[in-house]
Design goal:
Oligo-1,6-glucosidase, domain 2; Immunoglobulin-like; five-stranded antiparallel β-sheet; 28% helix; binds alpha-D-glucopyranose; binds calcium ion; Alpha-glucosidase
Length: 560
C-alpha cells in the first residue's frame, strides 16, 4: 500500500485545553497557555494538534455540551487568541484539528431553547421529542452517564432524547436543516484555517427508525444503547453528504470516534478510496478489561492479558491492511493513563520501561498514532481515594447508580474501580515542573494535580536523554523517515499467538523488514527469534542487547 496522503505518515498530539497550561491565574488551562507551549509540542516532532472542545459551553461535560458552535469559551480565551494559536501552529509547520460535537448540543444552545418552547416552534424538529409510553419514557434506552436517556420537559409536555447527560440533548439528524446547519458551521471553521475535525461519537447520529427498545440484561436498569444505535441505517448517507458539502471542498483530515465499530464498519467509514472519513477511533482494545457483567460496564479491576490484546491489535492490523486506515492510540481524555493500565507504574524503572514498550507496540504498527498530553512523559493515573476528589460526571453518576441505587457493588469496591478507570485520571493538570501545582498554574487548579508531579514532569524529562519524551521523539522521527512503518505488511512471528509474555511481530515492504519484540511483563524471559546477522537494532528501551534474554518490559526493534 502506498503512503499517498500526508496524514498516513503523521503523528497527532491531543490537548485537553482545560488541563494543559493556565496563564491568567484562574486554575483553568487556556488558549494562551497552548500558544506558550507550542515550541514544546514542536520539539516532540508531531504533525497535528487536536484540541478537545474550546467552544462556548456551560461545561456540564467539560465542553462536550456546546451552547454556541461559533464562539470560544471565554474562560479559555477569545477569537483573537484562537487566531494567534492557529497562526502559531501553522508557522511551525503543524496542523490544527478541532473537536466536532454534533450528536448533541448543550440544552443552553439557542436551537434547544427554541425547540423547548413547544411543538409548533420551527426548531422543535431539531431535536428528538416523543410522547411517553404508559406514563414512562418512550423506550428503555439508558444514558451513557447513567439513568434513562429521556428527560420529560414540563414546559412542552414531551420527552427529549439525550444519550449523554440531560443537558446534552441529541440532535435530530433526520432533519435536513440540522444537517445543513452543521455543514455550514464546519465550513465556517474551515474558512478560519482549521485543518480538520475529530468527530465526537459520530457513529451514533443515525438513530434506528421507530426508536425501538434495546436489549437489556437482568441487572441493567436501562438498556445499553450502543449495539442498537451505533452505525445506524443512515450513517453512511449522512457522512457522504457531509463529505460532499464540507470535506471535499477543503484539504482536511478527519477522524471519527466510532464506539462499537468493527473492522468491517471501519472499512465503510475510512476505506482507502473513501468518500466519508480518513480514519476511525475504534474501541475494541479499550474494552478488553471491562466487567463481564454489562450492568457494570467498564467498572472493574482486571488487567488486559497479552493474549487478548495481541489478538485484537493483530485483527485490526490484518483486516484493514490495503483497505482502510486506522488510528493508533492508548490514551485520550476518556481513558485511564496507559502506563498504569497496560504497563507498570509501581517502580520508577518499570514505569519508564513499560511506557516505552507500549509506545513501541503501537508506533511500529500501521495507522496514525495519537499521543495524549502527558503520555510522552509517562504520566500515571491519579488514583484519587475519595469520591469528592473526582470531578467527572460519569464516575460520580455511576457510583450513585451502582452503589446507592442498585446495590450492585459496595462503596469500597466501586472506589477501587473508579481509581482505575475514571476519566479524571486523564484530566489532571499537565505536569510541567516540580513547583506548586506542577507549573500548570499558580492558582488551585480546577482538577487536582497528581501527587507524583515532583517525580514526573516535563522539566525532568527534557533534562534526561533517556526519558520517555526522547523515546517518543525518536519513534515519531522513525515514522517520518521509514516508509515500512506506514506501508509495511504486518505479521505475527510464527508461534507467537500463544505466548503469555512476549509479543513479536514483523512489518515488511519490498526492501525492509522490521522485527518488533516486546516483553509485556516484569519477568526476564528467554526466547529465540531468527535475527539475521546483518540486522541492526533500530530502537530499544535498554542500553544493550542480550539477544535471547529479554528483560522486564524490554522493547527492541531490529531492521534488516
Ligand atoms: C465522547 C467524548 C466524551 C464525551 C462524550 C459526549 O465520547 O470523547 O468526552 O463525554 O463523547 O460528548
Ligand atoms: Ca486560565
Amino acid at each position: 500500500m502506498e503512503n499517498t496522503h500526508w496524514w498516513n505518515r503523521a503523528v497527532v498530539y491531543q490537548i485537553y485545553p482545560k488541563s494543559f497550561q493556565d496563564t491568567n491565574h484562574d486554575g483553568v488551562g487556556d488558549l494562551r497557555g497552548i500558544i506558550d507551549r507550542l515550541d514544546y509540542i514542536k520539539k516532540l516532532g508531531v504533525d497535528v494538534i487536536w484540541l478537545n472542545p474550546i467552544y462556548e459551553s456551560p461545561q456540564v461535560d467539560n465542553g462536550y455540551d456546546i451552547s454556541n458552535y461559533e464562539a470560544i469559551n471565554p474562560t479559555l480565551g477569545n477569537m483573537d487568541d484562537f487566531q494567534e494559536l492557529i497562526d502559531g501552529i501553522h508557522e511551525r509547520g503543524m496542523k490544527l484539528v478541532m473537536d466536532l460535537v454534533v450528536n448533541h448540543t448543550s440544552d443552553q444552545h439557542n436551537w434547544f431553547k427554541e425547540s423547548r418552547k413547544g411543538k409548533d416552534n420551527p426548531y422543535r424538529d431539531y431535536y428528538i421529542w416523543r410522547d411517553g409510553k404508559d406514563g414512562k419514557e418512550p423506550n428503555n434506552w439508558g444514558s451513557y452517564f447513567s439513568g434513562a436517556a429521556w428527560k420529560y420537559d414540563d414546559e412542552s409536555g414531551q420527552y427529549y432524547l439525550h444519550l449523554f447527560a440531560p443537558e446534552q440533548p441529541d440532535l435530530n439528524w433526520e432533519n435536513p436543516q440540522v444537517r445543513h446547519s452543521v455543514y455550514d458551521m464546519m465550513n465556517w471553521w474551515a474558512a478560519k484555517g482549521v485543518d480538520g475535525f475529530r468527530m465526537d461519537v459520530i457513529n451514533l447520529i443515525s438513530k434506528p427508525a421507530g426508536l425501538p427498545d434495546a436489549k437489556k440484561s437482568a441487572d441493567e436498569k436501562y438498556a445499553n444503547v450502543e449495539p442498537l444505535v451505533s452505525n445506524g441505517h443512515r450513517i453512511h448517507e449522512f457522512l457522504q453528504e457531509m463529505n460532499r458539502n464540507v470535506m471535499s471542498k477543503h484539504k482536511m483530515i478527519t477522524v471519527g470516534e466510532t464506539p462499537g465499530a468493527t473492522p468491517e464498519d471501519a472499512e465503510k467509514y475510512a476505506g482507502l478510496d473513501n468518500k466519508e472519513l480518513n480514519m476511525v477511533f475504534q474501541f475494541e482494545h479499550m474494552g478488553l478489561d471491562s466487567n463481564p457483567n454489562p450492568a457494570l460496564g467498564k467498572w472493574d479491576d482486571r488487567k488486559t492479558s497479552l493474549k487478548d490484546l495481541r489478538a485484537n491489535l493483530t485483527k485490526w492490523q490484518e483486516k484493514l491492511y490495503g483497505k482502510a486506515w486506522n488510528s493508533l492510540y492508548w490514551n485520550n481524555h476518556d481513558q485511564p493513563r496507559v502506563v498504569s493500565r497496560f504497563g507498570n507504574d509501581e517502580t520508577e524503572d518499570y514505569r519508564v520501561k513499560s511506557a516505552k514498550m507500549l509506545a513501541t507496540m503501537t508506533h511500529m504498527m500501521q495507522g496514525t498514532p495519537y499521543i495524549y498530553e502527558g503520555e510522552e512523559i509517562g504520566m500515571t493515573n491519579a488514583y484519587f481515594p475519595k469520591l469528592e476528589d473526582y470531578v467527572d460526571l460519569e464516575s460520580i453518576n455511576a457510583y450513585h447508580q451502582l452503589v446507592d441505587d442498585q446495590h450492585l457493588l459496595d462503596g469500597a469496591t466501586m472506589m477501587k474501580y473508579i481509581a482505575i478507570h475514571s476519566r479524571d485520571n486523564a484530566r489532571t493538570p499537565m505536569q510541567w515542573d516540580d513547583s506548586e501545582y506542577a507549573g500548570f498554574s499558580d492558582h488551585q487548579p480546577w482538577e487536582k494535580v497528581n501527587p507524583n508531579y515532583k517525580q514526573i514532569n516535563v522539566k525532568k524529562a527534557l533534562a534526561d536523554k533517556n526519558s520517555i519524551f526522547y523515546y517518543y521523539q525518536k519513534l515519531i522521527e522513525l515514522r517520518h523517515t521509514m516508509p515500512v512503518i506506514t506501508n509495511g505488511k504486518y505479521a505475527l512471528v510464527t508461534g507467537n499467538e500463544d505466548d503469555d509474555q512476549v509479543f513479536a511481530y514483523t512489518r515488511q515492504n519490498d526492501d525492509t523488514t522490521l522485527l518488533v519484540i516486546l516483553n509485556y511483563t516484569a519477568e526476564t524471559v528467554s526466547r529465540h527469534y531468527d535475527v539475521p546477522s546483518t540486522a541492526t537494532l533500530l530502537i530499544s528501551n535498554y542500553e544493550d542487547d542480550q539477544h535471547d534474554t529479554i528483560r522486564p518490559y524490554e522493547a527492541k526493534v531490529y531492521q534488516f
